[in-house]
Design goal:
The protein is of the alpha+beta class and 140 residues long. The chain has a single domain (4-107), classed as HIT family, subunit A (2-Layer Sandwich). The chain has helices spanning 4-9, 54-75, 121-139, and strands at 17-20, 24-28, 38-42, 79-83, 99-104. Strand 1 and strand 2 (24-28) form a beta hairpin. The longest helix is centred in the middle third of the chain and has 22 residues, at 54-75.
């Protein structure tokens, strides 16, 4: 299996490296809708969030705020989005888990549309219970 992110981590493909340790690798994205956009990923090939271990998640997210602060200082951004996609239907195109740290600026023209329905509270409560039950089943 060929994975461009694994190749970057191994030094077999070019990368503008921001951060590297035993568990986490971060580099500038080759697509820069706003300057200083960074991708943060586990060094082990993990295809998506569903297969990420809790330890790997802890290592990954322990570094994210530090990199975010670095982006803010380097770019002067006034905001930052964290994006992470799982599966084709969510827009994932490289199947090695990665987190987009996307610096934002006033009037940068980038828009995310989060519009949708606003269900009644009882419907939301039912969904919350469904997820909690599924989480219990997953841990047993």
């Amino acid at each position: 299996m060929s994975c461009i992110f694994c190749e970057m981590i191994e030094g077999e493909a070019p990368a503008s490296v921001v951060y590297r340790d035993e568990d986490v690798f971060a580099a500038l994205d080759i697509v820069q809708p706003n300057p200083h956009k960074v991708l943060v990923m586990p060094t082990r090939h993990v295809p998506d969030l569903y297969t990420l271990s809790e330890g790997e998640a802890a290592a990954l997210f322990a570094v994210v705020p530090r990199i975010a602060r670095g982006i803010r200082r380097a770019s002067g951004c006034t905001g930052l989005n964290i994006l992470q996609s799982n599966g084709r239907d969510a827009g994932q195109t490289v199947f090695h888990l990665h987190i987009h740290l996307f610096p934002r600026f006033r009037d940068d023209g980038v828009r995310f549309d989060w519009s949708g329905e606003m269900p009644e509270r009882d419907v939301l409560d039912d969904m919350a219970r469904d997820i909690a039950r599924a989480m219990q089943a997953d841990s047993s």
